[in-house]
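The aim of this short unit is practical: by the end, you should be able to scan a pair of folded records and say something sensible about each. We start with the first protein, listed as its amino acid sequence and then its structure tokens.
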Amino acid sequence: MIKKILISQPRPATERNPYSAMEKQFGVECEFRQLIHVEGLSAREFRQQHINPLDYTAVILNSKLGADHYFRLCEEMRLNVPDSMHYYCISETVGNYLQKFIQFRKRKVFYSEKNKFEDLLPAMYRRPNEKYLMVLSDIHTEEQINMFAEHKIEVKPAVMYRTVSTQWGDEPFDYDMIALFTPAGVRSIRENFPEWQQGDTVIAAFGAGTVQALEDAGFRVDIKAMPAAEFQSLPIAIADYLEKHNG
């Protein structure tokens, strides 16, 4: 029977969330603890990529984190981002977030209505002389860059922040179930607990990349959730498992 579950994400902001409902329905305890965190590259580290952000006329942003670290690094390197810079954002949320850094009315900001960079291609085609810099984490796929390349748009990838394992400390790692959402979370377990054996511990994973990382690390994946699978949400998949084993 499952009693204690590690959810490797921050605690939800409100009590009205699927995990609270799960605790009440199945009598489990959910502990929220992040196995990873993000830290920015220093200006010195970034310079090792031999990239000058001001050589580009446009920035491609796939997250608010990307915006944070782009403007942080420019400030640390004492680079004045010109008013003429264009911003191509994965979503309206990211586009609106830029108001934290720029006078929005003076810039040209483009964003996707459907969270797909493909939606930005028409705007890019209208500016054939644009030079694009794409802000990325050290852990990323080439899928987006390849998509631009397939449409004859040259994009320069620039790693500006990285995902690192959070140090666990001396507290015991004793859970009946572990819910993981990223391959980096798998890496954190291996780094923090190199001798840990799964045994009867149930592992729930979201996304094909996380599942693959777990299997590559020699773990058994008991619960899977991903966009094209039976369960598209990990809380729903976990609840289904608890219904069968704790119900």
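Turning to the second protein, read its sequence before its tokens, just as you did above.
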Amino acid sequence: MKTLAKKVGSFAALLILAGCQNSFLDVPPQGQQPSQQFWISADDAGKAVNAMYANLREWNNAAFAPIALESMASDDAEKGSSPSDATFFNTYDNFTVTSTDGQLGGFWSGQYQTINLANQVLANIPAITMDEALKSRYLAEAKFIRAYAYFRLVRAFGDVPLRLSLAKDASEYNIARSPKAEVWAAIEKDLSEAAGVLPQNYGSGDLGRVTKGAALSLHAKVAMYQKKWADVKSLTDQVMGMGYKLFPDYEQGFRVKNENNSESIFEIQCQRILGNAAASNSQYSQVQGVRGSVGGGWGFNIPTASLVAEFETDDPRKDATIIFRGETTPDGDIIPAAGDNPMYNQKSYVPFTTYISGYNEGADQNIRVIRYAEVLLMNAEANMELNNAAAALTSLNAVRARARGAKINILPNVTTTDQATLRKAIYHERRVELAMEFDRYFDVIRQGRGAEVFGSKGFKAGKNEVWPIPQNEIDLSGGVLTQNQGY
């Protein structure tokens, strides 16, 4: 049972509204606690923290906007669905998007809503009389969530407004973009402080909350984007000593019944809550599900032929990552042999038989954010860049060994100690291991290979390393926000 997902079901709107000062919004929402009576008890604190988690699966954080900004530009994914549906996705795929596209604003708003919720927790919980250990943990959870939102913002847009406290009055509402180095530093500070407080694990009632391992792992990823290889190695070494294990069956590791398994470091908790369709609101799986099948979905964000070709011969991860037209899935769903799209994302797949009319397809599917396999690959990359080939090969080959399982004649261990060759092998492994998990585009950018890999799609160096700042945000700021170069 996903206890945390049930707890966070329908509370997020309360704290978003609590930060509004306009009189026309001062209408007590039905069934919600007035903000004037909030921030008093430990129960209030728990509800506020749960609201942060709930917001992570909201539309702008988990559906169209992330697909556009975090997946569509890569060589792993293309629009899908029917040719005429949601054609704006094509502008991300071919790098012609302009600053007025709505998905930019949606993604921006989604992250800053998350940051607002975290800032409210950090500003208000310290004054509540409650168990001090639990209070410290709640504050650490908020720091992780804020860091995660800023991580998504800075890699998407570069310099962004850095809001680390609640605005005291109207004069503080409108702030300029901070240099990305300052944003990275703020993220690292939050994660360091969170890791010093968060537990390594929880009881069943709190399954899915962020842990010390999650904070260390995200910190390692943040350091990797800045090429701080010694830090990446140190942080991943710590996580590798914390008891995580690769789930033995790669394909089954993504199924609902195996969520929060031994490989899971952080997952966004999603659940269909019977009798409460509004709280069963994750559309992550729905928008990517098999189009034209009852219980499937809308068919967006489909794998490319380029991704198919990247898998080595007989790599089981190909069939575990991609649902092919005409196949029968391991869970027994027959995929039509004809249809709009030749393949779909299997990592977001939920068996059609679980569908209940009136609820989003796949509402139960958690969103995998950090897996132990990525920690091993970050460790391999750091060791490679630090000229420690033996340690790099150990971590890299552990990922390959899990993928091949008992099939000894496929996916042989990588043995090269030449740095350039090993670097290519690690880049390849990241692509096939983490395919369709919304990292490929940013991986290529941080590796400095944007023009090389995406040039044929329209990528222009010096421009497309970041997305345009939403024009609506610039307009609302009165010009305080500035646009990225080339847009």
